[in-house]
Amino acid sequence: MVNKKLICTLLLATMLVTGCSGGSADSSQESSGTSSAPLSSSGEDSSSQQAGPSGWPTVYKEDPEHLEWMDDTSPITLTMFKGEVITDGWNWGDDRVTEYITERTGVKLDVQFAQSSDNNELTLMLASGEKLPDIIATVYPSSIQYNEMIQGDYIHKIDELIDEYCPSMWDLLYPEEIEFSKMEDGHIYYVSRQTQSVSYSNSPYFYMNGHIATRTDILNDLGYKIDEITSTDKWIEVMDAFMARKDEWPEVNYPIYIYQPSLTSGAFDGMFGGETTSSPYRYDMETDTLSYWFESERGLEQLKFWNRMYKEGYLPKNVFTDDFASIVPQGSFLFLLKNNAWEVPANKAAIAENVEGATVSFIAPITNAPDQEWSMAISMVSPMIMPNTVITKDCEHPDRAIRLMEFLKTEEGNLAVTAGIYGEHWELGTDDQGVNYPNPIGEAAQAHFDIAKLNTLGIYNSTKTWIAVDTLYDDIAGYPQRFDEENEEITAGRDLWKPYVKTNLASALPDLVTIESGTTEADIEGNCSDIYENMIIDIILAESEAELQSLYDKMIADINSVGKENLFTILLPKIHDVKASLEASGIVFE
Q1: What three-state secondary structure class fits 389?
Q2: Residue 381 in 3-state DSSP?
Q3: Would you state the CATH architecture of domain 212-379+489-502?
Q4: Of 60, 251, 320, 530, which is most buried with the most CB atoms under 10 A?
C-alpha cells in the first residue's frame, strides 16, 4: 500500500512520445494470476501462437478464454468525461477502433471532452451537485479533485467492483500495479490508464532513447561508428577530429550541447560510475541514507570533467543560455546530451530539411573509466502519475463500466487501441528471433510513421481512446520500426542503451516520492535547488582549479545551511513506504 501523498514523478508522457516502454519478459512477474502465457520471445513458445477468444493471434500474452465482460454484451451507452481538449468534433464510433470495441463489448461511450486544460470543469462538476458522468478519465491521483472524489464518496472502489463483477480482471493486472495503486485505506479507486511491469526492461520489445545523440553524417565522415565511442577518451578523440575540420560543418555551433536541467538533476551520473535516475537524489540502501548526486567524489569528478570540456572549447559557454528547442531542428550540434533525448529522432526530418544530408542517432553509453558501466533507472511503476480512469457512483451500470475496463486491459483491447484491428490494420509478424509483433497492413502500413494519419483510423489515439492501456503495447505497436531501413540507425542507437537499463535500482526510489507544494520539505528543496542549479553552472565555467574547488565547497555549505539534512529526514520515511510497497509486490532491489 502506498500513501496517497507519495506520487510518482516519472516522465512517462515523454516515454509515450518516444516508445520508450515495454513489458515483462518473465511470465512469473507478468500477472498476479495464472492466465497469462509467457512472452512470445521464441518460436519454440507454442502458447504465443494461439488465437485469443476474438480469433486474434497472440502477440505478447494469451487472454483467458473467458472473462466476465463476455457475460453481457447487450447494447448500452455510458457517459464519460475526458479531461482532454478535443476540437475536431470526434465522437465514439467515428473510427474503426471504437466501433470495434462497441461491437465486442456492446458498450458505446458518449464522451464529453474538456474545453480547457486547467481542470476547472471537473472542479465545477463536483461542486455543482449535479449527476456526474458514469466514467471520468484523465484523473490524476496527485490532483485535488481526485482526493475530493474519494473523501466525498463520489467514486466507486475499483477493487470492490472487480471482486463483485469481474474477478478475472485481477489476472490482467501486474502485481506492482495492484499494490502501488492502493490508497491509505487499502482500496483502489482508479483503473490505471497506463502502467508497466517492473521487469519491462527485459522485454524483447523494449528499447531506450539514449542520453547522448549525435549527427551521424558527421560521425561517419570522421570515420567513427555509433557503437565504438564508449569512453570519454574516445569521445574527446572524436571531438578533436571534428575541431580540426569544423569549417566543413559551419552550422555546428556546439561540439557538445548539454541540456542544463538534465545536467543539474544528475542525468549523466552514470557516465562516471553512478546511476542515472529521474531525480537529483540518490538513496543508498546499505546505509539507508540520502544524498544529492553531486555530494560525492564521483559528483565532483563529473563537474571537473565538464569544466575541462568548457576550457578546451568543446562545451561553449552559451550552451547554458541558448534555447534548446531551436537548436535540435537546426542540427547545430555534434553531440547532444539530454535525459531521454527523444527530441533528436523526433526532429530527424526537420534536421535533414535544414541541413542537407544530415542524419541523427544515439551513440553507445560513454563512461569515464574502463571498469565503469552506465546504469540507468527507468520507472518501475507508473499509475500514480498517469491520468487514470474512475467510475462514479452516479453510474447506474457499474458492472458494465468495470467490465469495459476489463476488456480494455486484455491484449485484444490493448492491441486494438495501439495497433488497430487484426486483419484490417495488422497481421501477425514474427522476426528472426521468433518474437511476434503486429505488422501494419493496408492504410495502417501507409500511415505507420504518421501519428496524425493513424489517429484518423482510431489507432494510437492517446487523447481519445487510451483509457486502460499497458505501456508494453506501445512498444509492440512500434516494433516494425526495427525493420524499416530509414530508421535502422536510430533503432540501433536505442538498442545500444537497452542493456544498461534497470527497473529495480534502490538508488532511484526517490523518483517515486513527490514533494508537495506548501510543505516544509518543498520550501527546503526550493532553497536547495536555487543554490545548486545556479552554482553547478558557475563551477563548470570556473577559470581555475582553485576557483572550482572553492565554488564547490560553497555550494555544499550553502545547501547544508538551508536545511538539507532536515529535508532528507522528512523524505526518508516516504522512501521506506514506497520501498515496502514495491517489495510486497515481489520486487527485489539492488
Answers
A1: strand
A2: coil
A3: 3-Layer(aba) Sandwich (3.40)
A4: 60
Q: Determine contact, residues 404/165, Cβ cutoff 8 Å.
A: no
The x, y and z cell numbers of residue 262, run together, are: 538534465
> Rounded distance, CA 456 to CA 453, Å?
5
CA 458, 463, 464, 470: dihedral to nearest 10 degrees? 80
Give the integer Cα–Cα distance in Å for 378 and 270: 13
Cα 349 vs. chain centroid, distance in angstroms?
A: 23
Closest CA to 201 of 558, 436, 497: 497
Strands 375-377 and 254-258: unpaired
CA–CA distances in Å: residue 357 to residues 174, 216, 489, 514, 541: 45, 10, 14, 44, 34
Closest-CA residue to 499 (of 234, 271, 204): 204
Eight-class DSSP state of 222: T
Domain 12-34+68-201+382-414+450-472: assigned CATH number: 3.40.190.10
User: pLDDT tens digits, the chain, 590 residues: what are they?
Assistant: 444 333 333 333 333 333 343 332 222 222 222 233 333 333 334 344 567 788 999 998 889 989 999 999 999 999 999 988 888 889 999 999 999 999 999 999 999 998 887 778 888 999 998 999 999 998 888 788 888 999 999 999 999 999 999 999 999 998 878 887 888 899 999 998 877 777 677 788 888 889 999 999 999 999 999 999 999 999 999 999 999 999 999 999 999 999 999 999 999 999 999 999 888 999 999 999 999 999 999 999 999 999 999 999 999 999 999 988 889 999 999 999 998 898 998 898 899 999 999 999 999 999 998 788 898 887 655 556 677 899 999 999 999 999 999 999 999 999 999 999 999 999 999 999 999 999 999 999 988 767 788 888 999 888 888 898 888 898 898 888 888 887 888 889 988 998 888 888 899 889 888 787 788 999 999 999 999 999 999 999 999 999 999 999 999 999 999 999 999 999 999 999 888 888 887 788 88
| Amino acid occupying residue 379 | S
Decide whether 12-34+68-201+382-414+450-472 matches 212-379+489-502 in CATH topology. yes
Whole-prediction pTM value? Answer: 0.80
Dihedral Cα 11, 14, 18, 23, nearest 10 deg? 30
Cα gap 396→1, rounded to integer Å = 30
Q: Would you kindly state where each structural domain of the chain is located, as residue ranges?
A: 12-34+68-201+382-414+450-472, 212-379+489-502, 506-584
The 3-state secondary structure of 522-575, one letter per residue = HHHHHHHHHHHHHHHHHHHCCCCHHHHHHHHHHHHHHHHHCCHHHHHHHHHHHH
Report the C-alpha gap between 528 and 523 in whole angstroms: 9
